[in-house]
């Protein structure tokens, strides 16, 4: 025994190390990519598109988008060859292809010109163009493809014309035209001319035409023409000597002719050209050659300048239509593409400007209603195999999706609306019922085994490349994760996202496919609502108890127009089917939406909508809702933050709305408290609550941001209202290493506010350390009490913060160290600190069950600490799990568009330089000045979520796992397990290895059993042989007799058999003997084992089946025979079977 | 001797810390200055690789206020930058770059001083090199006996083997009297035999 102990001691640490190895990262193997994550790349709504199809080889279309993306797309499949996401302030003005190999992009209001290599997207050169006044910005790329010195890009931006060399981006000359505050509309160079014309307006009634030498940029001539009627600002270049403008009433055309340097104006009433014209006309921005498209009411009218210089109407089409620029194909001919609508179809027509009445192409494509109308169309021609001309059209739809049409078919489409997600929420999938189709899981046992053996090979690094491909395919193909039903682990959900275009998409978490999408009818432009904007999305109805049969639904909130006072729009959408249930246009505005903690009998959540006047409106508008809400009304509070003025106000609700208005769903508000930040020293830049989303005030300019709180907040684990949205906290107590207990101060009414010095409110680099500071507040939003305030000198924003449980972590910039910092504040409840007395607990004199009221004055203590963090941060979130037991991770969206998972243990205020052993045991990491960035803990691994804007974490049903959705221009989804998947086997768990191990173990058990039996016998035999001579007589009559009988009975057969088989075949003999013996069925006898000590001898051991002596036998008391364990052994000398000898040996245990 | 060496070391450290690293890479344009620098990644291409193409590299000024891309030779520029202290960050997949503190002097016509913020190392030229490569995936250990031995199952097996081979040896070295005593002890308890566990095989 003493020997085993040290061995065990030796082994235990080894075991411990292997189980609890301090590996904080939960990293991925490269072959696990795509197993539980998906990444979709988007580009956003296309603004410009340029085709590149002249040369043989890969055909592509280069696009620029509203998300500031320049991308090159494969024209055959719509895949992205390359793309670049420019900075958020670097809005793209225009793109074009120059010299057949460079993509030229103009951005930042005409001040940055870049050239990208067309095949691979490498930036070739970049030019910064100086200018002073903001103006329209555009450029014209040279048309010739040959590389010579004439490849000059004419750029107009910030009031200056620049001639930039296409080859290296050098500015050849520059001419500042901003001196007279002219608003230049067009810059053009007639073909073969050395003159460049710049046409624009000075004030609204003067037209100015500059003539510039194309060689050196000298201003040759300047014409100013007065037009007393004034211009509207629209100016269309019809041909190089004719321009059309509209007068200020937008009812007259002004034709501007430039002939031989002379300018003449001619105005024409639109009413004379178009019958029944009334109202106002506007010129469409499409660039048409020799033609003009104007929009009048609900029509688009095409006009042409005739040879005589007169305007004539060519065609008139219904308005929701898109017109392409004219495309020159063949000599002197131009084609124009039109997209019109009828019902659920779109019609693409391509016409020649010279022969308008006949269509080159006229196609109808069924598109359904979910894409809305076409907003832009770009056409491109190609030569068909029969040498005729074909056209393809790239269409940008109302929902920002992109389609390529060719030969009457949609070749590909891209859902690029998903690049501009406004808000997200999640929904459960339907429960699996009988009849609901369940995908086949495994085909048969053989394939299953084959799959697992492949996986095992992968684990053991024995797989070759083909196998790896097969493994990858098998994993991705596994249909399990893409089923349309709820799973036990809660991994399968619907991500419901609202895009800027007012479209709602439901994405499956398994692979990110769009399950359904709905272009909300109520969010489309209509006569009632000109500029509907979608704002946010909420869970409206989440049935679980009473209304299981009903589908869940979401609430989409928007408003008509951009201003805060515009009336709101509500839309209710079924989460399973994607149908709009109903919608309503509100009479009041929506400043904020507050989901309440109550649901009605159909599990519809009650929502309060606060309007711009501070009145609260209750939804759903039912009597039941009012009945539920009325008793809770005195306990409902809300607050608003006015970022501009720096005031936070807290409100309570009143039963009555405004005097004189009888609206039972409307409640007035009374101001309870307010916190005014001194405007000369503090400016609010960020606020965060324990609700999931962070609100940066800089985005919502000075607007009211807030949340509601039903007061009397609950105890830590009792039923906190509205737990679906709020995170779940497992325990309120935190047990320290020294058996001390700290109580987390858990109140969901806490509000984190960060303010900075007004001078430091700008970007980094604009303030010096002495005049900047950052103040962090923790405010109770029920009472307005400031619980904690801390000043960080020489720090500035931007501040990104996340609030969870009883802690807040915020990220800001330290100007003195010139590094980013992350601070943590943890709040503990001091009033419960004396609850540690066990005796008190036993006799019930503790106050654990006493209600915690938000009104009472809390005694809190605060612990905080700051760490350096390397990167800039775009978004920050915290991992949420179902029960809150799993340790937390911060999900940090870095400037490089990656999402880093940082263990909360690293941002613990209790970290110290030399933690005591007890603290180490508790998991406290020694203090370092900066937070570690472990590359393996990027949840996005080697991918980037371009243009990252937000991170959403949703708990799965499995406690260890949290679902993470990061969105920006790209979408990324994965599962993370902050403390590893301790409650389930990982995906790469090798069942085959387990099986093999079990088989091997069982086999080894049998082998060792046999061996041990043999050995045991041998041991006994050896010992007994020594004792044989000295053995005492004992009653063996019974067994002896029977053995003798047996052997004598069969002696003849044995003899013959043995002589037949020779001595070596003793095994056969043995077998026969055994069979014979058993067949005799001798009562209470059994043959157990035959052993061969010497190949020449066969031993047969006969063992009594039952105790040989009756229980009451007096012999039992005797010491030497206490264990009735007698065996008889028959030894047969196989070499001399004829002289068979019997040796009966007794064996005692 | 030791003391003087320490002082010398401190002096050197101080020199590094305060030594103004002069970079003449900015040019004044109207209201702002231009910062030009270069990103160099060893081992990518020849000398100056083409990081922009392979890594989707970007250079950010002041946390995304301006975003610049790399040319084929690794150069990047920020235009219209005001005088003051700025922060430049490089994002390139697979590499870890330290942010760079850049001081643009207003008096000296936009003279630029740069220092890495991670290790406070001054830069004499604005050439940014990665501090280290980043490996985003765990590397699967190639199959080896050691890994099998180190696994919990392997450890258990190892323990068994030790017990099987070492224990008898230890028993041999034991005092025979002790063995006898132990055996007697065991006998009095009755030795559980595997054979007894198999049904039908001798119930004694």
From TrEMBL, chain A:
Domain called ER membrane protein complex subunit 1 C-terminal: residue spans: 804-1021
Keywords: Endoplasmic reticulum, Glycoprotein, Membrane, Signal, Transmembrane, Transmembrane helix
UniProt cross-references to InterPro entries, sorted A to Z: Beta-prop_EMC1_1st (IPR058545), EMC1 (IPR026895), EMC1_C (IPR011678), Quinoprotein_ADH-like_sf (IPR011047), WD40/YVTN_repeat-like_dom_sf (IPR015943)
Family, similarity comment: Belongs to the EMC1 family.
Leader peptide range in chain numbering: 1-27
Parts of the chain that traverse the membrane: 989-1012, 1063-1080
Subunit structure: Component of the ER membrane protein complex (EMC).
Annotated protein name in UniProt: ER membrane protein complex subunit 1
Organism field: Stephania japonica
GO cellular component: EMC complex
Organism lineage: Eukaryota, Viridiplantae, Streptophyta, Embryophyta, Tracheophyta
Main localization of the protein described in the UniProt heading: endoplasmic reticulum
One annotated GO biological process: protein folding in endoplasmic reticulum
Record-annotated EMC1 first beta-propeller domain positions: 27-416
Annotated compartments: Endoplasmic reticulum membrane
Membrane-related topology note: Single-pass type I membrane protein
From TrEMBL, chain B:
Keyword field contains Membrane: yes
Membrane topology classification: Single-pass membrane protein
Signal peptide as annotated in the record: 1-24
Top-rank lineage group of the source organism: Eukaryota
Alphabetized GO MF terms: carbohydrate binding
Region (Disordered): 183-204
Alphabetic keyword roster: Membrane, Signal, Transmembrane, Transmembrane helix
InterPro entries, per the entry: Beta_sandwich_EMC7, Carb-bd-like_fold, EMC7
Cross-referenced SUPFAM superfamilies: Starch-binding domain-like
A GO cellular component entry from the record: EMC complex
Principal location: membrane
ER membrane protein complex subunit 7 beta-sandwich domain segment(s): 55-156
Annotated localization: Membrane
Transmembrane stretches, start-end: 153-171
Family statement: Belongs to the EMC7 family.
PANTHER family: ER MEMBRANE PROTEIN COMPLEX SUBUNIT 7
Protein name: ER membrane protein complex subunit 7 beta-sandwich domain-containing protein
Lineage, opening ranks: Eukaryota, Viridiplantae, Streptophyta, Embryophyta, Tracheophyta
């Amino acid at each position: 025994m003493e020997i085993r102990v040290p061995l065990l001691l030796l082994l235990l640490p080894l075991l411990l190390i292997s189980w609890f190895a301090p590996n904080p990262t939960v990293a991925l193997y490269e072959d696990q990519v795509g197993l539980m994550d998906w990444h979709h790349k988007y580009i956003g709504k296309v603004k410009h598109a340029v085709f590149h199809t002249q040369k043989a080889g890969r055909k592509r279309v280069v696009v620029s988008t509203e998300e500031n993306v320049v991308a090159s797309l494969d024209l055959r499949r719509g895949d992205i060859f390359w793309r670049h996401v420019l900075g958020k302030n670097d809005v793209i003005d225009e793109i074009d292809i120059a010299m057949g190999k460079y993509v030229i992009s103009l951005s930042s209001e005409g001040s940055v010109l870049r050239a990208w290599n067309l095949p691979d997207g490498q930036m070739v050169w970049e030019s910064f163009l100086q200018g002073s006044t903001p103006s329209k910005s555009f450029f014209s790329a040279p048309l010739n493809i040959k590389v010579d010195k004439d490849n000059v890009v004419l750029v107009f931006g910030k009031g200056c014309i620049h001639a930039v060399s296409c080859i290296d981006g050098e500015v050849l000359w520059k001419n500042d035209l901003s001196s007279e505050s002219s608003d230049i509309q067009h810059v053009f160079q007639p073909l073969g001319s050395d003159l460049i014309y710049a046409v624009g307006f000075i004030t609204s009634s003067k037209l100015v035409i500059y003539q510039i030498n194309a060689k050196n940029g000298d201003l040759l001539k300047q014409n100013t023409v007065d037009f007393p009627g004034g211009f509207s600002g629209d100016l269309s270049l019809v041909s190089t000597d004719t321009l059309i403008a509209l007068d200020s009433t937008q009812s007259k055309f002004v034709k501007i002719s430039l002939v031989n340097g002379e300018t003449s104006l001619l105005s024409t009433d639109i009413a004379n050209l178009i019958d029944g014209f009334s109202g106002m006309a506007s010129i469409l921005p499409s660039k048409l050659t020799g033609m003009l498209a104007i929009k009048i009411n609900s029509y688009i009218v095409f006009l042409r300048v005739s040879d005589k210089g007169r305007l004539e109407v060519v065609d008139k089409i219904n308005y929701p239509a898109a017109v392409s620029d004219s495309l020159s194909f063949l000599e002197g001919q131009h084609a124009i593409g039109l997209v019109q609508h009828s019902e659920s179809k779109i019609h693409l027509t391509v016409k020649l400007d010279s022969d308008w009445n006949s269509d080159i192409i006229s196609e109808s494509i069924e598109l359904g209603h979910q894409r809305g109308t076409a907003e832009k169309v770009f056409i491109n021609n190609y030569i068909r195999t029969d040498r005729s001309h074909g056209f393809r059209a790239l269409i940008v739809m109302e929902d920002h999706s992109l389609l390529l049409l060719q030969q009457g078919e949609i070749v590909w489409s891209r859902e690029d609306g998903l690049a501009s997600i406004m808000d997200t929420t999640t929904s459960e999938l339907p429960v699996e019922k009988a009849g609901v189709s369940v995908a086949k899981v495994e085909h048969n046992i053989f394939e299953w085994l084959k799959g697992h053996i492949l996986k095992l090979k992968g684990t053991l690094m024995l797989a070759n490349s083909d196998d790896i491909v097969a493994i990858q395919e098998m994993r991705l193909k596994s249909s399990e994760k893409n089923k349309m039903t709820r799973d036990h682990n809660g991994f399968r959900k619907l991500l419901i996202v609202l895009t800027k275009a007012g479209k709602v998409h439901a994405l499956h978490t398994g692979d990110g496919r769009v399950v359904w999408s709905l272009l909300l009818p109520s969010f489309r432009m209509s006569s009632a609502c000109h500029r509907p904007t979608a704002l946010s999305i909420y869970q409206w109805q989440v049935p679980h108890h009473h209304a299981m049969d009903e589908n869940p639904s979401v609430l989409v909130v928007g408003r008509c127009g951009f201003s805060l006072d515009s009336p709101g729009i509500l839309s209710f959408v079924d989460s399973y089917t994607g149908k709009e249930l109903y919608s309503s246009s509100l009479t009041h505005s929506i400043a904020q939406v507050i989901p309440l903690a109550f649901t009605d009998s159909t599990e519809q959540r009650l929502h309060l909508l606060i309007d711009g006047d501070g009145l609260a409106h209750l939804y759903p508008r039912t009597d039941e809702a009012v009945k539920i809400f009325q008793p809770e009304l005195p306990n409902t509070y809300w607050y608003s933050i006015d970022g501009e003025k720096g005031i936070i106000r807290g409100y309570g609700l009143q039963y009555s709305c405004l005097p004189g208005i009888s609206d039972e769903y409307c409640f007035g508000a009374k101001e309870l408290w307010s916190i005014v930040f001194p405007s000369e020293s503090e400016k609010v830049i960020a606020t965060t609550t324990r609700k999931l989303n962070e609100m940066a005030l800089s985005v919502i300019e000075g607007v009211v941001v807030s949340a509601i709180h039903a007061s009397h907040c609950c105890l830590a684990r009792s039923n906190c209202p509205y737990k679906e949205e709020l995170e779940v906290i497992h325990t309120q107590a935190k047990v320290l290493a020294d058996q001390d207990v700290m109580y987390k101060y858990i109140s969901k009414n806490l509000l984190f506010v960060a303010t900075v010095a007004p001078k430091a409110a700008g970007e980094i680099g604009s303030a010096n350390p002495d005049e900047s500071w950052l103040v962090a507040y923790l405010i109770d939003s029920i009472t307005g009490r400031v619980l904690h305030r801390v000043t960080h000198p020489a720090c500035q924003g931007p501040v990104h913060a996340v609030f969870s449980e009883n802690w807040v972590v915020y990220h800001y910039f330290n100007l003195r160290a010139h590094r980013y910092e992350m601070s943590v504040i943890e709040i503990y409840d001091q009033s419960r600190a004396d609850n540690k007395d066990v005796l008190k607990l036993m006799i019930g004199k503790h106050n654990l069950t006493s209600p915690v009221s938000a009104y009472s004055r809390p005694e809190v203590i605060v612990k905080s600490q700051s760490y350096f963090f390397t990167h800039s941060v775009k978004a920050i979130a915290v991992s949420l799990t179902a029960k809150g037991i799993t340790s937390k991770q911060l999900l940090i969206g870095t400037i490089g568009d990656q999402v880093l998972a940082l263990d909360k243990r690293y941002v613990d205020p209790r970290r110290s330089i030399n933690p005591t052993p007890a603290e180490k045991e508790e998991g406290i990491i020694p203090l370092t000045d900066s937070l570690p960035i472990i590359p393996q803990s990027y949840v996005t691994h080697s991918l980037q979520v371009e243009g990252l804007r937000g991170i959403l974490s949703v708990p799965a049903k499995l406690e260890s796992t949290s679902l993470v959705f990061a969105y920006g221009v790209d979408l990324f989804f994965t599962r993370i397990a902050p403390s590893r998947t301790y409650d389930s086997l990982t995906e790469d768990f090798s069942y085959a290895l387990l099986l093999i191990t079990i088989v091997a173990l069982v086999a080894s058990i049998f082998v060792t059993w046999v061996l041990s039996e043999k050995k045991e016998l041998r041991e006994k035999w050896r010992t007994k042989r020594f004792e044989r001579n000295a053995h005492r007589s004992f009653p063996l009559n019974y067994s002896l007799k029977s053995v003798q009988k047996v052997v004598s009975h069969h002696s003849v057969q044995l003899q013959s058999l043995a002589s037949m088989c020779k001595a070596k075949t003793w095994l056969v003999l043995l077998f026969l003997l055994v069979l014979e013996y058993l067949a005799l069925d001798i009562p209470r006898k059994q043959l157990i084992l035959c052993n061969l000590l010497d190949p020449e001898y066969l031993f047969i051991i006969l063992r009594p089946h039952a105790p040989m002596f009756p229980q009451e036998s007096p012999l039992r008391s005797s010491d030497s025979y206490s264990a009735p364990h007698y065996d008889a052994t028959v030894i047969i000398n196989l070499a001399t079977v004829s002289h068979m000898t019997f040796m009966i040996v007794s064996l005692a245990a | 001797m030791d003391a003087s060496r320490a002082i010398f070391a401190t002096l050197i450290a101080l020199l590094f810390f305060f030594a103004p690293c002069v970079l003449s890479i900015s040019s004044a344009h109207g209201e702002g200055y231009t910062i030009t620098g270069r990103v160099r990644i060893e081992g990518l291409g020849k000398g100056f690789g083409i990081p922009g193409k392979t890594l989707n590299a970007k250079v950010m000024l002041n946390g995304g206020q301006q975003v610049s891309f790399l040319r084929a030779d690794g150069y990047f520029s920020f235009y219209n930058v005001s005088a003051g202290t700025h922060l430049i960050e490089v994002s390139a997949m697979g590499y870890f770059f330290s942010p760079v503190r850049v001081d643009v002097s207003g008096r000296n016509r936009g003279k630029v001083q740069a220092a890495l913020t991670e290790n406070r190392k001054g830069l004499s030229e604005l050439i940014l090199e990665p501090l280290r490569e980043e490996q985003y995936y765990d590397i699967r250990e190639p199959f080896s006996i050691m890994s099998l031995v180190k696994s919990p199952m392997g450890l258990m097996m190892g323990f068994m083997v030790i017990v099987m081979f070492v224990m008898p040896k230890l028993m041999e070295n034991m005092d025979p009297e002790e063995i006898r005593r132990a055996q007697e002890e065991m006998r009095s308890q009755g030795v559980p035999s595997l054979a007894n566990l198999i049904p039908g095989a001798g119930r004694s």
